[in-house]
Amino acid sequence: MTDAAQRPAVLVHRAPAAPAAVLREVCAGAEEEGVPTDVVDVPARSAGAVGLAHAAAQDSPLEVGVGVDAAGAVAVHHGKLPADRPAATAGPDAGPQDWRRTGRTAARIVKGLPLG
Amino acid sequence: MGAPDRDPSSARLVVGVDIGNSTTEACLAALAPDGSVTYLGADLTRTTGVKGTPDNTAGALRVIRDVLARAGRRPDEVHTVLLNEATPVISGLAMETITETIITESTMIGHNPTTPGGQGLAVGTTVSIADLAGRAPGEPVVCVVPAEWDFDDVARVVNAAVARGVSVVAAVLAGDDAVLVTNRLDRPVPVVDEVRAVEKVPLGMLAAVEVAAPGRTIRTLSDSYGLASVFGLDPEQTRAVSPVARALTGNRSAVVVRTPSGDVTDRRIPVGELVLRGAGKELRIDVDAGAEAIMATIARLQPLDDVHGEPGTHVGGMLAQVRDTMADVLHDADGAGQPPAEIAIRDVLAVDTFVPAEVRGGLAGEVALENAVALAAMVRTSRSRMQLVADQVSAQLGAWAEIGGVEGEMAVGGALTTPGVDRPVAVLDLGGGSTDAALVTRDGVCTAVHVAGAGELVTKLIDSELALGDREVAEGVKWHPLAKVESFFHLRHEDGTVQFFDQPFQPHVFARVVVLTPDGPVPVETRHGLDHVRRVRRAAKSRVFVVNAVRALRQVAPGADLRALDFVVLLGGSALDFEIPELIADELAPYGIVCGTGNVLGTQGPRTAVATGLVRAHAAASSCPAG
Fold first, then answer.
1. Which of B130, B425, B472, B475 could form a disulfide with B567 if both were Cys (CB 3.0 to 4.6 A apart)?
2. Of A32, A80, A114, the CB nearest to B489
3. Which tops the pLDDT comparison, B240 or A58?
4. CATH code of residue A63
5. Burial of B508 (0-12, 13-18, 19+ CB in 10 A)
6. What is the overall mean pLDDT for chain B?
7. CATH number of B106-265
8. pLDDT at B111 over 90
9. How far apart are CA B32 and CA B10, in angstroms?
């Protein structure tokens, strides 16, 4: 995991119970844009998606992180943004399209493209 | 105030009020018995109702009270209110596309998905992915994938087919999955995605798929002979497919399907003829000939009496539409109405433009730039009811109110208070609907003209050429400089300078081209870069205001010679624009003209020229009652 943290990638912090389907689409969204992702399992704690994303962004060499919490909520964060102001979020009841979009948004922050 | 030996109480308080299409402006002054004028202030408010109608009274009273309050004076101190006689013109706009691109039998996919997969050129027969499992090895196949397929499944099915010996050389997808699929193929192939109507791709036909490397554009399918080589076309067939090649130029990816009778046609819509009457002649000009030819014809028919469009053609419809709007305005304006057929169009400005339009028969929302022509037209109206406004103002304010003069002449008078200006001077009033010019010679003789086309037309051109579909956004693009948001904390202005912000931008403006409004950056919804938006904006201003400045000044200049002009002062709302004055000044500089933005009274900028002119004219008239 230390190796993974070295290569330029969007870090995805995943809570232990995070749904695999959500994670798959998030990573697919970034991959379609050509930006690599590294998934990091974080220990169980109370942080929600936004907190996970903020921590991921702090760790990411690209300063962009995604958080997927136990309920399946997703947040995208940039390392320089205030902790409570994520770049994008998708609620726990969002669908595959929204999960895919969050991954795409993370990649587009890296690429400097409109998040759309 | 005045000289110490003068009794201020004997000075009369005068308010000049200019009711314009969008703003009502006032200038307050004290007139001493010896005719000297002391300006006490100026103000403006929004015009209430249609210019020249009794509805204007409310706005006029508001601005009079505002300017008095600001100067610390009471309404009952006012001696005379002076109103302008409105410019007797109303203008209208119409736009019509004159070309149309149609794809028949779904032969071409020429959109530009942001993330196609793989790269290279491949030719094969189109086969649905559902039929791939049963496909025998043999000729090359282009796999067509409907929307409901997941990228993992697509890759698995294609890999299985390839393992059996089926040669899958390319794929066309409905979803945004090209890179995901390509990454999972054992043998990567070019993949074009985001083809919304993929079910309309004809199956069992020969198709070519080309994806260029990042940063490059396709080379083969956008070349007529490239298509001929790929599909083995004879010279006659090559001629037929050349519009396809042209339509695909500049794309990063494309699909061309060879069907027995499929085609892309670039159709010219017959627009019809303009019938122009003026100077005792009648001339006809085909709108297809373009704006330049139309304007040259109009120049030969000055002064223009009327313009009609050939009935049953597009231009006939355009002018009918303009007449209908004007009839409505005139009806609103005076309640009496005037049948549209009786409205004489006294000037027309034609502008060549282009409109990005979705291609008919396209499978992926392809957009083609279609040629279009925009017309601004202007009618004269003799039905201004300013006198009624004056009567109402008088009754409600308890002061004498009168029509103080005609707009053009008054504007010159106001413009002359700009430091550095002297007679002979021409003013250009850059308004919303019309561009007005007035010239006053050394001996005080004034001529004024009005030509069609101004700020509204600029907004319309920007709106349609950038396909914004939102007049407010187009206004924003017109009024404010552009910038590109480059990170959450900095943006690059259109002149290249970079500005840092200590508060992060909202995600919806991230990496976007924005207009810098006083309320912050507002995104311009376009796939074009900043340079393109800027070019469109400047071209729109130039095609309307620079063209009209020259046209209008020629009409007032002695001998129609611009060299005969010395000073040109720009007035009106569009003179506040951040680049229109310099565009016009650049155009006029070679004629030896001093051109700049008016600064009425040395403090008011290009505003309140007419209101100030009213006060000046009144002061001049009262100091020498004989004249």
1. B425
2. A80
3. A58
4. 3.40.50.10150
5. middle
6. 89
7. 3.50.30.70
8. no
9. 7
Q: Which two tokens stand for residue B362?
A: 């396209």
Q: How far is CA B180 from the centre of its chain?
A: 41
Residues of chain B with CATH 3.30.420.40: 1-88+384-410, 420-598
CA distance A76 to chain B (A): 11
Q: Are B195 and B149 in contact (CB under 8 A)?
A: no
What pLDDT, in 10s, does the model give residues B311-322?
A: 888 888 888 877
Identify whether the C-beta of residue B439 lies closer than 8 Å to the C-beta of residue B562.
no
Q: DSSP string spanning A38-65?
A: EEEE----S--HHHHHHHHHHH-TTSEE
Distance CA B78, CA B43 (A): 16
> Are B488 and A31 inside 8 Å of each other by CB?
no
User: What count of Cα atoms within 13 Å lies in the side-chain half-sphere of residue B464?
Assistant: 23
Domain with CATH 3.50.30.70 in chain B: 106-265
Test mutation, B150, B508, B510, B513, chain A, max A CBs within 10 A: B510
Q: Provide the pLDDT confidence category of residue B4 given band limits of 50, 70 and 90.
A: very low
Cβ distance of B511 and A32 shorter than 8 Å: no
Would you say residue B627 has pLDDT above 50? Answer: no
Q: Decide the pairing of beta strands B400-406 and B425-430.
A: unpaired
Tokens read off for B94: 């119409």
Cβ atoms of residues B242 and B248 within 8 Å:
no
Residue B115 in contact with partner chain A when CB distance is under 8 A: yes
**For residue B540, what are its two tokens?**
């729109």
CATH of domain B1-88+384-410: 3.30.420.40
Instruction: Express each pLDDT in B317-360 by its tens digit.
Output: 888 877 877 777 666 555 555 666 667 888 999 999 998 888 88
Task: Tell me the CATH class for B91-98+269-380.
Answer: alpha beta
Angstroms from B216 CA to nearest CA on chain A: 17
The answer to whether the CB of A70 falls within 8 A of the CB of A13 is: no
Cross-chain residue pair A28–B180, CB shorter than 8 Å: yes
Phi, psi torsion values for B256, nearest 5 degrees: -125, 125
8 Å CB contact between B598 and B418: yes
CATH classification of B420-598, choosing from 3.40.640.10, 2.60.120.260, 3.30.420.40, 3.30.70.20? 3.30.420.40
